[in-house]
Amino acid sequence: MSSHGSPLSRGSRLGGFEIVAPLGAGGMGEVYRARDSRLGRDVAIKVLPQAMSSDPERLKRFEKEARAASALNHPNIVTIYETGSADGVPWIAMEHVEGETLRKVLVGGALPFKKLLNVATQIAEALARAHEAGIVHRDLKPENVMVTKDGLVKILDFGLAKLSGPLSGGSDKESQLPTVTGTSPGIVVGTVGYMSPEQASGEKVDFRSDQFAFGSMLYEMATGRPPFQRKTAVDTLSAILNEEPAPMASVAPRTPTPLRWIVERCLAKEPRGRFSATDDLARDLAGLRDHLSEATSSASLVATEGARRRNVPVPLAAAAALVVLSAIAGALGHRWLSSRAPSMLVPTLRRLTFQRGNVLSARYAPDGRTVVYTAAWEGKPPEVYTVRTDSPESRPVGLPMAQVCSVSSKGEIAVLLMGDHTVDGVGRLARVPIGGGTPREILDDVWGAAWAPNGEDLAVLRRGPSGERLLQYPIGTTLATGDINLGSLNGGGLLSPSGDQVAFLQGGSLTTVDRRGNRRVVSKGWPEGEAAFAWAPRGEGFVLEGTRSGAADALYAISSTGHERILVNQATGFTLHDVAADGRMLFEYTNATSGIASRAPGDKLERYYEGHDASLLYLSADGQSILFTDLTEPDQLFLRKTDGSPPVRLGRGPWLDFSPDARWVLVKGGPRELDLVPTGPGIVKKIPVENVDVGDAHILPGRSGFLLGVKSGESQDLYLLGPDGGEAAAVRVDGYSSFAAGPLISSDGSRILWETADGHVRIGSLKDGKSTLVPGPPLVIGRDFLDQWSADDRSLYVLITGQNGQPARIDLLDLATGERKAWKTLMPADPSGVIFVPSVVVSRDGQSYAYAYSRVLHSDLYEMEGVR
C-alpha cells in the first residue's frame, strides 16, 4: 500500500470494525468494506494518507469537518459514522452504498434526460443542504457520486476535499486526480477537470465553487464529455481560466434549453454570475425534472429546428407552448394563423436579449423588425433599448427610468417616466422619438398608454383628481371608470389595430369599449393584475396569458365572441408582450425567486436567504429571529434564526404578532380566541375573548396583555385584554376611527401611533384617550409605510419600498418636530435582477433589520415567427 505500508488484510480490525475486503484506492487513501459487529451492518472505511497524521492542525480540521458532514443527515449524502486512528493513521467509517460511481455510469456516454435530471436534482438538493449548513465540498466530481440500482444518489467525501494530500507518481489521467491542497488563498484545492476558475487560481472559494464543479458534471452528463478536458492538466487549467466550453446546442442539440441555461450559469467564470443560493439551483432542476414528460419531445423538435436555423430556442415550457400554437387558428376561428403553412409544425424562435437582468416591457416598432423594450440589466436601473430581430445587439435609447408603453406609426415611443420610488406603478406619460432625444412630457399619474393608428392620439389609463381610475381615449374623453386594470403590460394591449375599440380588465373580466362608450364583456374570471393580453392581428380576438383561480398559469386564445381555448396548460415563467401584424409574437421567459436579507447586532455584513418566496412579517427585538411566510404556502409560518441556520415551520396562521423575546407567536385561533404558539419547546396557550370578535391583536410590552382591534362598520375600535384573556375593555382614543394604517405600540405600552386616511401621523394615549398630530407634511399614501417606533419612543422608522429595481429606504421621522431624515438604504450587495424590495422590519434600537426582496434570475425576450 503506497500511502500506508501494507494493505489491510481480511479480518484486521479498526476500532469496532472488521475488515472484509478492499473496495478501491486513490490519491486520498484506500477504501475497505468492513463489518460493524456491534450493530450488525456493513460499512465503508477509508484509511487516509499517512502524511495527514503528521499535521495536527489538518487532522483537527478533518475531524471537525467529518463531524459536521455526519450531522447533515441528508438522504443524498453518505453518512459518516465514526472517526479514529490506527498506528497514527486516521480513518473514517461511513455508510456503505451498493452501487456504482457516476464515473462508471458515464462510461456509456451521455445520459437520457430523464435519468440525468433525476441524478442531477438529487445532487443539487444535497449540495443545497450542505451549503446551507456552511459546508463546501471542494472536490465534487463523478468519482465522488454513487448511484444505486434503484437510482438513489449519494455524495461521498463531504469535508474531506480540503484535506486531500498531494499525489506521488504520475498518471495517464492526471486531470482526473486531486491537486495540492490547503485552505489559504494561493493554495489549489480540488480536481483539475472540475475545479472552478477561482480554485484554479488559488483564490478563496465558497459554495459557488461547488456549483461550477456541478455544472461541469451536468455538461458531461448531457453531452458525454467534460467541458474543459484537455491533454494535460496544465492545458485543462488554462481552459477553465480562459476558454468557454463548446456550446451544448451544437454538441447535444436535443438538450432542453432550460438545462442548457442552468449549465451556462453554473459555469460562469465569475462566482457572482452563478446562483446566489444552491437551493435556487436545486429548485430549477426539480421543476425541470417534474415537467420533462410534458414537453421533452416538443423541446427536442424545437431545439433541432432551432439549431438548423441558427436561432436560440425558448425555455422548455415555452417550447412546448409554441409547438402547439399552430392550434390557435382553430381557437380564434380566423385567417391570421394558416394551418396550411408547413412551418406551423415547428415555429422559428429567436432569442433577442442576452444580458443578466429583468425585462419590464417590450413592443414591436412599426417596421415589425425593431423591438423597443425596457430592461434593468446587470444591476443597473431600468432603461429603454432597441434591438433588431435579426441581430443580437441591443442599443440604449438614452432614457433611464422610463418604461415603454407603445410605439406609434410615426416612430415615437410613449413611455412612463418613473421616479426613484414610484407609487403604485404610476408614472408621467411622455413621448420621444425612437432614436432618442429629450422626452416631451404629456400627462401625470398614468398607469399605461397606447398610440392610436394615426400616431397622434393616445388611449390612457390615468388617475383622476380624487384618486379614481379613468380610461380615456383620446386623452380627456373618459370611456370607463372604476377598478380598471391593464394587466401586466402597461397598455400594450389597450387599442385594437383599427383603433375603434379599447380593451381592459375590470372586475376580473376582459372587456372592450368603443369610442361611443358601448361596453362588451369578452371573457370572465381573470384575477386582477395577473393577466397579459394583446389584440390578435386585425383585431380578430385576443391572445392572453394568465391564470384563473385555483389553476396554473396558461396561454389562452380568445375569439372576439368569447370562445377560448387553452394553448398551454403550464405557462409559468413566460409572459406575452406583443403580437405583430403578421402574427409574430414577443415572449419573455422569466425565472424569479425571492429572499430575505438580515443584519443582526454584531454582523458586519448582511446575510441572505434566497429560495423561499418570502413575505416578511416580524423581527425579534434582539434581531436574532425572523418570522416569514412562503407565498407558495401562504398559510404556513416559518421561523428563521439570523445566524444562517435553516428555517423551522411553525404551523398555520392567521398570524398577528411576535413577542419581543421571540418565544411566542400570536395567532387568531377563532373569532373569540387567541393562541400563543411557542417558537421552541412548549404547548399552545389559549387566550379566550369573551365579549368581542377579534379583528387583529398585538402583544403589549412585558406581556401585560393584548391590544385588540375590532371591526365596527367602516372603522375599528380598540380593546385591552388581560394576559389570561376574559372580557376585553373598550379603549377610546381621539381620532382613531379614521385610521388608515397601524397601530404601532410604543416601547412602554402607553401610546399608539397610526396613519390617518389622509397620510398624517397621530399619536394617542391608551391611558387618557387623548391624541396629537405629528407636525410636518403627510406621508405619501402608497409609498410611505409605518415601520417601528424607535427605542426612545421619540422617532418613527418610515419605509419607502424599492420598486422598478430601486433600493428601499428607511427614514427617521422626529415625532416632536416632524423633521424627516434618511436613515438607511437597503438593497442586496448583488443587485442584479432585484426588481422589488417590498418590506422591511427594523428593531427599535436600530441595531438590526431585515428586508424581503424579489430577484429575477433569468429574463429574456424571444420572438416566434413562421405563423402567417
Model description:
The longest helix has 32 residues, at 278-309. Strands 10, 30, 31, 32, 51, 54 and 55 form a seven-stranded antiparallel beta sheet that branches. The protein has a seven-stranded antiparallel beta sheet with strand order 15-16-17-18-19-20-21, with no helix packed on it. Strands 1-2-3-4-6-5 form a six-stranded antiparallel beta sheet. It is globular, with a radius of gyration of 31 Å. α9 (257-266) packs across α10 and α10 packs parallel to α11 (316-323). The chain contains twelve helices and 55 strands. The N and C termini lie far apart (72 Å). It is of the alpha+beta class and 868 residues long. Among the domains are: 1-96, Phosphorylase Kinase, domain 1 (2-Layer Sandwich), CATH 3.30.200.20; 105-351, Transferase(Phosphotransferase), domain 1; 354-559, Neuraminidase (6 Propeller), CATH 2.120.10.30. A hairpin with a 6-residue loop joins β41 (696-699) and β42. The relative contact order is 0.07.
List keywords for this structure.
disordered N terminus; seven-stranded antiparallel beta sheet; alpha+beta; 12 helices; Transferase(Phosphotransferase), domain 1; 868 residues; Phosphorylase Kinase, domain 1; Neuraminidase; globular
CATH class of the domain at 105-351: Mainly Alpha
CATH topology annotation of the domain at 105-351: Transferase(Phosphotransferase), domain 1
Tell me, briefly, the overall form.
globular
Name of the CATH architecture of the domain at 105-351? Orthogonal Bundle
- Rg, rounded, reads 31 Å
The count of β-strands is 55
**Which segments are poorly predicted (pLDDT under 50) over 5 or more consecutive residues?**
1-5, 159-190, 293-347
User: What oligomeric state do these chains adopt?
Assistant: single chain
Strand composition percent = 35-45%
- Write down the overall mean pLDDT: 80
Going by CATH, what is the homologous superfamily of the domain at 105-351?
A: Transferase(Phosphotransferase) domain 1
Terminal-residue CA separation: 72 Å
| Major sheet characteristics | 7 strands, antiparallel
Treating each run of at least 4 consecutive H or I residues as one helix, how many helices?
Answer: 12
Structural class per helix/strand content? Answer: alpha+beta
Provide the helix percentage: 10-25%
